[in-house]
Amino acid sequence: MEYWKVATAVITLVGFVFLVWKFAHYLQDRKEKKLKEMPVEDVSFDKILEEYNNVTPLQKKKFKSSYKGVKVKWHVSFYAIAETYQMGRVVKVMSFYERFLFVNFKTDLKKFPIIKSAKEGDKYIVTGLVDKVKGEKVYLKLIEIEKNKFFVI
Fold it and tell me: Could you tell me the residue range of the domain that residue 27 belongs to?
């Protein structure tokens, strides 16, 4: 009779863990769907940096947060993947609209496997949320990345 109670407890526990796991995935999927449905703002990489370079040093801290969370979609060229102590794996891509400017984002190669085969100069369209602006760099929280075969610089 004791084995029956233990088996019931184990099955109940496994079922509960499975339900929690499913619910966590449901919430993550819902969050990703909402991010994809957010409208893309008409903000260029160059516009952000031009504004950043025109503010005083005292205004820069406030400016850095003014674009945080803005959804953007930019044409970029792959540059490199770097491992950093603070941020982990960071992908660097460049905007070539006016000058060599970097857009950086942390990435999960399982979620975005297209990056595994990226070579310097490959053209992409990145969609993400502006996380921060620092110097000549904009950091994004990546939502989507796709190969852009028709992008000509």
Answer: 1-37
